[in-house]
Write a structure and sequence with these properties.
Rossmann fold, 263 residues, alpha/beta, single chain, seven-stranded parallel sheet, binds NADP nicotinamide-adenine-dinucleotide phosphate, globular
């Protein structure tokens, strides 16, 4: 069953910049109500919300560190307070390690920070929103399938020994998707994982030269270009629109073919 985006009420975490912003803007441009979550960059979040409003959607910004229980509580409370029942959660916010340290030198503090923001935050936010979706089911428009989308990474399975904590956090998001998909199916809540590959955002800015070489000179990717945030947004729009009504727990690779083993 198709769900027009104007029927969607969404929370997108980490929507001030990069992939999250592209997702929020796409939902807004299609007429949805979008909660633009951010952590520290208020100006960027306001800018995203303004773009959504200009394109015909509705937006609100909520500052909340999703790595904290207090932040998650406030995000859900503010979102439901303004827009009512949430029927789409996009767990997008995430961070890379501040230092790409060899596995033998991984700092405990970095490990804890990555796991808190990239895995624990999405897990407990999903738990809170899932309960809200179940409780407020009658307020969700008939025909709208509640959807939860987790933005993981090719790092869920590709081992980078200079940022092991990031890979572990994303592998955890992959299992988290399977768990919630299995648990929430009885409530007709669909859960998906989108695995972006190398995508042009602030996160990959510091390693641009390295990836330019790998993509354009060394043939790392079958599709020889960087991913763009809009590539991920298109996948989210397809899932939110009901493109896969008999699928849950599905992994969607948005990676230029990176996942294909080649000989
Ligand atoms: P980005 O450009 O660095 O943007 C990160 C976003 O997350 C910003 O909006 C930031 O908010 C927000 N954020 C960071 N920590 C947060 C926290 N504790 N609470 C709430 N929001 C927080 O990153 P991106 O490249 O768009 O990445 C988005 C997601 O895609 C991440 O989960 C990342 O791991 C994943 N991913 C990225 C790539 C890639 O190549 N770029 C590839 C695969 C997967 P502020 O603006 O307030 O800082």
């Amino acid at each position: 069953m198709e769900t027009p985006a104007q029927d969607r009420t969404a929370i997108v975490t980490g929507a001030s910049r990069g992939i999250g912003r592209a997702i929020a803007v796409a939902l807004g441009a299609a007429g949805g109500r979008v909660v633009v979550n951010y952590n520290s960059n208020k100006a960027a979040a306001d800018d995203c919300a303004a773009e959504i409003e200009q394109s015909g959607g509705q937006a609100m910004t909520v500052q909340a560190d999703i790595g904290t229980a207090e932040g998650r509580r406030r995000l859900v409370g503010d979102a439901v307070g303004r827009f009512g029942a949430i029927d789409l959660l996009v767990n997008n916010a995430g961070i890379a390690p501040k230092v790409r340290a060899d596995l033998l030198e991984t700092a405990e503090q970095s490990f804890d920070e990555l796991l808190a923001i990239n895995l624990k935050g999405p897990f407990f936010l999903t738990q809170a929103i899932a309960k809200q979706m179940i409780e407020h089911r009658s307020e969700i428009s008939p025909g709208v399938i509640p959807v939860i989308i987790n933005i993981s990474s090719v790092s869920a399975y590709a081992a980078s020994v200079n940022r092991g904590e990031y890979c572990i956090s994303k592998a955890g998001v992959a299992m988290m998707t399977q768990l919630f998909a299995a648990r929430l199916a009885e409530h007709s809540i669909h859960v998906y994982e989108i695995r972006p590959g190398i995508t042009a955002t602030d996160m990959t800015g510091p390693v641009k030269a390295k990836y330019d070489k790998m993509i354009f000179e060394e043939g790392l990717l079958p599709l020889r270009r960087w991913g763009q945030p809009e590539d991920v947004a298109k996948a989210v729009m397809a899932l939110a629109g009901g493109a896969l009504p008999y699928s849950t727990g599905q992994v969607i690779d948005v990676d230029g073919g990176f996942h294909i083993r080649r000989l």
